[in-house]
Amino acid sequence: MTIKVIIVDDQAMVRAGFAALLAAQSDIDVVGEAPDGREGVEVSRRAHPDVVLMDVRMPEMDGLEAARQLLDPPRGVIHRPKVLMLTTFDVDDYVYEALRAGASGFLLKDAPPADLISAVRVVAAGEALLAPSVTRRLIADFARQRPAPRRDGPSARRSGLTPRETEVLELIARGLSNQEIAESLVLAEQTVKTHIGRVLAKLGLRDRAQAVIFAYESGLVTPGQ
Amino acid sequence: MTIKVIIVDDQAMVRAGFAALLAAQSDIDVVGEAPDGREGVEVSRRAHPDVVLMDVRMPEMDGLEAARQLLDPPRGVIHRPKVLMLTTFDVDDYVYEALRAGASGFLLKDAPPADLISAVRVVAAGEALLAPSVTRRLIADFARQRPAPRRDGPSARRSGLTPRETEVLELIARGLSNQEIAESLVLAEQTVKTHIGRVLAKLGLRDRAQAVIFAYESGLVTPGQ
DNA sequence: CATACGATGAGCCGCATGGGTGATGTACTG
DNA sequence: CAGTACATCACCCATGCGGCTCATCGTATG
């Protein structure tokens, strides 16, 4: 079973080069080409390739938008190819946009030909592959978002909040008013105010809005569920 | 300049195989081996390799803990090698733990020898590299956490906020008071209050604390930097 | 036993905040 | 040209919120 590939790039020379390189592989067929995103989407709809090699920067419709359309097809379109993004420079925003859109890979055009070929095979197999510099960024991003479990626990950052204070802070970060917090914890509203006052003082915050920010930034609460 | 590598794996056979494979490269020197995490850390401290090949599952101290110790060294230890994790099976938890700890790569032991060699070079160069199946998971995770901007834009979620209102909302989410927002945007405080009033009304929120929550939950602002 | 800390709550005070209404100027669009 | 959307600002008002002080009651901790 051969891997059907189309190549979308505004430079004819690049298309020709990649086409020649890939077509020389017995397990890869180049079944189409296009010079911009719009035509790329059309060609893909007709030729339903397994893999779309997509340049990022193109006239008419850039590779990111084209990738989005291919990966989130309108009702009625069943075909959903794997998309392998290509770029000359490696620019953060492009990478993240592409990955968000569901691209299966991101390579720099200066990668060794062998890498491109194996990338096509990897992507066709349903796996994913990134340029090493991109991988590094993605990992860094991942690690930054979820820092390693601090050995002293998250409480360390919360500079000596008592359990009750932490509890109150969390309810603030859920958007409750003082009165609602009081009801929720079965307390007098005044008690809640005392707790909040201490929380703000200990953390050096001005108001509950800043407390909410702190709760998110410190990981006490996290976005999305 | 050769790349100094140590190999940490509890199976002598595996160590021997990898050592032979890598030592055959003119630009790679194997400067040490260890059968478990604890000894691996010791050997690394003495031999200060550029790259540590680290098995995940080992007696005494597993590869994850060893990686953590190498990548977050105690005061006084300056050397900080790159860590390339190896595993026989690819298990999610291991991968995420390792990446959180700051590992530069994650390969399956059944990868082609050429991949291992190039992985060592990539990692030594400060870049990163993952097994394709791992890459796929990381991307999926990434895309899931930050879903692609719907084609009608993130503003759709913000239910028709005007650009100015969005701007004000963002400053609220940075913890600024009305007066500070006014100064920041060169406006009268009353104007700021009008904008905020509209934001709260359009989004169905009660106060600025809830506005901060919304800003985080909608992705207008994100934790961490 | 004395001390300290955490949790609870009261009273008071002042201001930032949020709601409501209305007005003006600009810019775009049908 | 009329209609609409947006940004700007003013005035008024009620109150939620945060600052400050003080008091009581447990429970550890020395």
From TrEMBL, chains A, B:
<dbReference type="InterPro" id="IPR001789">
    <property type="entry name" value="Sig_transdc_resp-reg_receiver"/>
</dbReference>
<dbReference type="InterPro" id="IPR000792">
    <property type="entry name" value="Tscrpt_reg_LuxR_C"/>
</dbReference>
<feature type="domain" description="Response regulatory">
    <location>
        <begin position="4"/>
        <end position="124"/>
    </location>
</feature>
<keyword id="KW-0804">Transcription</keyword>
<dbReference type="InterPro" id="IPR058245">
    <property type="entry name" value="NreC/VraR/RcsB-like_REC"/>
</dbReference>
<dbReference type="InterPro" id="IPR011006">
    <property type="entry name" value="CheY-like_superfamily"/>
</dbReference>
<keyword id="KW-0597">Phosphoprotein</keyword>
<dbReference type="Pfam" id="PF00072">
    <property type="entry name" value="Response_reg"/>
</dbReference>
<feature type="domain" description="HTH luxR-type">
    <location>
        <begin position="154"/>
        <end position="219"/>
    </location>
</feature>
<feature type="modified residue" description="4-aspartylphosphate">
    <location>
        <position position="55"/>
    </location>
</feature>
<keyword id="KW-0805">Transcription regulation</keyword>
<dbReference type="InterPro" id="IPR039420">
    <property type="entry name" value="WalR-like"/>
</dbReference>
<dbReference type="Pfam" id="PF00196">
    <property type="entry name" value="GerE"/>
</dbReference>
<keyword id="KW-0238">DNA-binding</keyword>
<protein>
    <submittedName>
        <fullName>Response regulator transcription factor</fullName>
    </submittedName>
</protein>
